[in-house]
Amino acid sequence: MSKLIDYTLHLADTALIISHRNSEWCAHGPILEQDIAITNLSLDQLGQARNFYQYAATLINQDNSSTVSEDSLAYLRGEREFKNLLLTELSNGDWAQTVLRQFFFSVYQYLLYEKLQHSNDEQLSAIAAKALKEITYHIKWSGEWVIRLGDGTAESNHRIQKAIEFLWEYTGEFFIAADYELIDVAQLKEPWLKKVKEIFEEATLELPYPVYMHTGGKQSVHTENLGFILAEMQTLQRTYPGLEW
Amino acid sequence: MVNPSTYHQTLPATKETILAILEQVPDPEVPVLSIIDLGIVRDVSLSDDGVEVFVTPTYSGCPATDAINLDIRLKLIEQGFNKVKITQRLSPAWTTDWMSEAGRQKLKEYGIAPPPKLSGANEVECPQCHSSNTKLLSQFGSTACKALYQCNDCKEPFDHFKCH
To answer: Cα(A142)–Cα(A152) distance, rounded to whole angstroms?
Structure first.
């Protein structure tokens, strides 16, 4: 049971943190349509996170008759409890860095949920099947941006190239399973690379050379970014516990 | 037979009655559509414990979900069905194919291009001049379920309820 809880929290935290990062673009997007697009993505991810947190709360409450809720799981857990992927917590950087992070993540999320929808766990499978329809849009949108920037101007190509160099070393973690994971994530590496390569070719971009890959997010060992995110995200509930409006 | 003391309504406690009442609950974001038109009410059951309504969300993050649940409860209470339980059903996932024909017609009259059937042609017709010569401006629109289009003939921009 505790493995299932950890796994559900890993999925929830990952969706919540990338949702929060994308929501930081609200009212700062490069043009109105894209501002609306990225906040729509953020909303989808928040919905996915809520579904996972609600399920995790049910499991935890059954297990030890405590009374956690989706809100307490999101707002009252600390940095060393969050199990999100490191990639999702990295700063937004410029638009190129944000859309590339989204592209790397969406391709992975799609492959993962494709497996998850056939899981024996009915609730995880239902949440994944629903989210897959949304992720299809996310891959399309972020992939089109990678192509537009890579195959755009010298400046846009330079920006996305820099983003690749920065983000690549946080993608290895996707495929290294934590002991609580229900899906064999190592299997997803090949199809992930294939899709990334396909879009990169169209974008006139190249895959980087193998580099050192950071890990730790799944084990709650994070980069310095997560503490700042949680401080901002949780400040109200920490200062005024139980506040509602 | 349902225990009559569970209910305080004058209408018969049947599934048909409940569905007819739910016809009067609008989608808060596209108010011409009822939640029945939208296809998100998956089932209704009546028992001694009251009315249970099974609802599926359109998109995972649809912010209207909580508002819809509240509206369902209020509308049923208004008609004397005091004990209401709303259960979220995620699977099978909602699809625009569950939208009723009446719903599609209402959307069109409201100025939103209805979603094509999943199996059908993916032409998007301008709700103003009915031309099929239209273009996608953005995959994401004013709500999670809509995309932004423009008509190449009459030039009018319009919302399209995405096929999902």
So the answer is: 15
ipTM: 0.84
pTM score, whole prediction: 0.92
Taking CB atoms and an 8 Å limit, are B60 and A44 in contact across chains?
yes
Average pLDDT over residues B60-85: 93
Q: Same domain for B132 and B58?
A: no
Please identify among residues 21-50 of chain A the ones whose CB lies closer than 8 Å to any CB of chain B: 33-34, 36-37, 40-41, 43-48, 50
According to DSSP, the residues that pair with B45 across neighbouring strands are: B52
Answer positive or negative: Cα dihedral of A154, A156, A159, A161: negative
Which among B93, B94, B144 is the nearest to A40, CB-wise?
B144
Per the structure, the complete domain to which residue B144 belongs is given by 99-161
* Residue the block writes with tokens 């995959």: B139
**Chain B contact probe: residue of A22, A44, A130, A138 with most B CBs at under 10 A:** A130
* Count of structural domains within chain B: 2
Query: How close A33 comes to chain B (CA, Å)?
Result: 7
Q: Which class in CATH covers the domain with range A2-239?
A: mainly alpha
B79 and B150 assigned to the same domain: no
Sign of CA dihedral B57, B63, B65, B71: negative
Q: How do residues A122-181 score in pLDDT, each as one tens digit?
A: 999 999 999 999 999 999 999 999 999 999 999 999 999 999 999 999 999 999 999 999
Would you list the domain boundaries of chain A? 2-239
Burial (CB count within 10 angstroms: exposed 0-12, middle 13-18, buried 19+), residue B51:
buried
